[in-house]
Amino acid sequence: MKPFTFMRSLRNKLLSTLLIIHLLMIGGVSWYFFSCYGDMIGTMKDDQLSKIADAWATNKQIPALMPLMVPADKLKSAFVVQLWDADGQLRASSWPELHAPLQAKKGYHDADVGGCHDCEWRIYTRPGQPGSDIKTIQVMHNLSYMKELMVKRALSAIVPLILMMPLSLLVIWLVVRKITRDLRVASRQIAAQETHHPHNVSPDGLPDEILPLVAAYNSLLDKLRAAWSAQRQFLEDAAHELRTPVTAVTLQLENLRQHIQQGEASRQFDQLEAGVTRTRHLVTQLLNISRQEDQTVVASIENIELDDLLKESIEQLMVVADKRGIDIGFNGSTHYRLQASRSELRSLFDNLIGNAMLHTPEGSLVDVLLHRVAGQTVVDIVDNGPGIPESFIERAFDRFARSPDVKAQGSGLGLSIVRSVAEKNSIHVALSNCFNPQGAICGLQVRVTLP
After folding, report:
1. Is 385 among the domain residues?
2. What is the domain extent for residue 395?
3. Which candidate among 3, 46, 166, 188 keeps its CA 20 to 30 Å from the CA of 429?
4. 13-69 residue pLDDT tens
5. pLDDT of residue 232
């Protein structure tokens, strides 16, 4: 995984941010509760220290103090009383083993007694009443015990926050999952659109923050549709305008043929006639691609036996095959019937088989196979021509795209027409090179996978 890829996800960003906020909130609540609870307990304890000291100050004589009779683990939670005489001698203590020194000043003090980690004490010192044997009274309690108690209380207060954190993360995860699911639905709608006939994305169910993006995308689609419509109209108008003069030139060439003498003039006339033929073919291809992309034209749908249609296409192209000495064969090992426009399917297979005969060397082979592959019916058109460079296969279906290695004449529109027909009829067309045992390209295979 690339660095920082995790934080590129909207869901991960929200969950991470929420987790950090929860941790900061737990820390803040813990500190606030610890501070407030500590102030409250400290004030209450100080008040208790002073009241205990005041109660002992009423004695005229120094009484005997019984040692604290509590378990050892509870000893530091009790109050300790010390009574001192006028000579600064400790006369009585409720915890004799605790050697807490007499504080020089009256009032409240914090002192370490014993030098251990939990031996910090809060001490209140006050003088005895005049005429009493008690000169000084000290009452203390263990601060370390109180802080430990405060920590426990603070932790118990943040338990609900800790328990709420995974619930909050789950809720956020579910909400973001719902949002991203809506986005994935919109993405699938966009991905499923036809290349030349995209439709607007519905904003229903999408969050308000995404709507400007959807509106911008739909606006771009409107501009693209307008541009494609203008381009299609231009192709159709140009083809129609060219069709009449090209047809006229073709007729004139046919009339002129009988007057051409053999030799150089005949050779140049043949070149001129071939150029006009290519021009006529280009005009026809422009008209075909314009019709294929015009959604207002509804093609008639009929039941088609695919093997019969392939035989018709091969028979029509036999003149070209005989002229170039190409052996074209058909092998149909399965039967397949589909509902489609016969003219559109003929256009698809005429272009594919015609391209195979155009690009394969004279005297070679072209095979048309109708068979089953991996549970699907496919038509394979295989030639033994020069193939297509691997880097060019993805661009082969673009308009006017021609590989620089191809020497055969063509308009560069045949595969574009094939793609348009295939998309309209849910047919998949794929190109792949054939390789000999030495790893060299020995032909091209066009696989037409039928729905």
Report:
1. yes
2. 302-449
3. 188
4. 777 887 888 888 888 888 887 788 778 888 888 898 999 888 888 888 887 777 766
5. 66
Average pLDDT over residues 295-306: 70
Q: What is the pLDDT of residues 253-266, one digit of tens each?
A: 777 777 777 777 77
Distance between CA atoms of 146 and 380, rounded to whole angstroms? 87
Residues 97 and 232 in one domain: no
CATH code, 27: 3.30.450
pTM to 2 decimals? 0.46
Residue 122 · residue 108 · CB < 8 Å: yes
C-alpha distances (whole Å) from 290 to each of 196, 199, 331 are 11, 19, 33
Average pLDDT of the segment spanning 311-340: 82
Angle ∠(167,168,170) on CA atoms, nearest 5: 65
Q: In what order do the strands lie in the sheet with 80-84?
A: 90-93, 80-84, 136-142, 120-127, 107-112
Of residues 284 and 14, more confidently modeled: 14
**pLDDT at res. 239:** 61
> Residue 295 above 60 pLDDT?
no
Instruction: Please tell me the distance from the alpha carbon of residue 372 to that of residue 378, in angstroms, as a whole number.
Output: 6
Indicate if 216 and 309 belong to the same structural domain. Answer: no
In this structure, the answer to whether residues 19 and 125 fall within a common structural domain is yes
The CATH number of residue 349's host domain is 3.30.565.10
